Amino acid sequence: MSKAPTNSIKFYPVGNGDTSLLTLSENQHILIDCKIDNDAPTNKDKFNIKEDLDSLSPKDSDGRSHLDVFILTHPDNDHCAGFKDNFFCDDPSKYDQNAKERKAIIIDELWFSNTLFDRFKDPLSEATKNFKAEAKRRKDLFKKDPEKGKLAGNRIVLIDFKDDCKDDGLDSLILEPGTSTNVFNTKTKSDFSIFVHGPFKTPTPDSQDRNETSVIMQIRFGSSADPMQALAFLAGDADYNRFKRLLDERDDESIQWDLLLSPHHCSWTFFNMTPQAEYPAPQESAIEYLKRQRGSGIVVASCKEILDNDDNPPHYQAKKEYLKEIEEDDFYSTADESLVPLVFEATKNGFVKFKTTLTDSKRTAINSVTESPKTYGSIL
Asked: pTM to 2 decimals?
């Protein structure tokens, strides 16, 4: 894959699942969710996400790749598959020969939500357990040795409510829903921030249990003069109930969007209860939220091919509902080209699709590793 432009979002083709990479100024990268297939290096029908991440990531003096931030929106397996296999899950000081041989990527800063896991009642997949174990390691380390817990590879941000937090001594690590931040991996950005909306503090009676805790974010690209030039909205598998709460409880500016990652892989759950045959009319709140687009909105569906059948997700009727609110040319699916990620560059007037080709997707981005290296292992 040729290097994505600075200030852009890349959606990897992973079928029904999410893997979204934000490329920021100063050669920083944020990965939101992951579904990484280990057979991709030998499977000609799959895009090699690990190779792409490794080629884009800055290297330290020992040649180890670093990812600035990893954010998990919710504990479903299709949002964290391959986590332990591709990222290093331990203190970077223990990075051994095995990790070196498999080119395990060090996550400098991990974003984790106790609220999300406390209210998620379904059994956890092995990949999710691995993520939770790494988050626990980082929390425990900070409690025991805060200075070491602030080092790259050990850092953690908790997306939680301070008065509900069960972890004593971690208040300084909490980012509360309903607030924004422009600090990522210790660097303060003037051209990028994230407003965190969810999970909400309390569920609502009609919530769908499995997805009501999803981390919901408004991604803001801009400048010091105008911090909201291009707005993306990512909400994991959040259903229509979450979006009604956004309309009811948040200010209009924080829920606007130029690009929307279709929740739950273009599922009908964004529009109403399922099955769609029993709940055929979209909720007014879902349509009202879609009208919060600024200008010509872009909708991206991270899913398998959308066919006129009974699948959900993706759901054919859901796509048709999106197309009632946006232009057909502004609806994209990661299944459109199974070996080419979708890349959108943030501009002063929203997002523009960045041209990529199959040839690009198979070419190593050698230019990306010539960026000035960061300083790792110190508290910045």
From this structure: 0.92
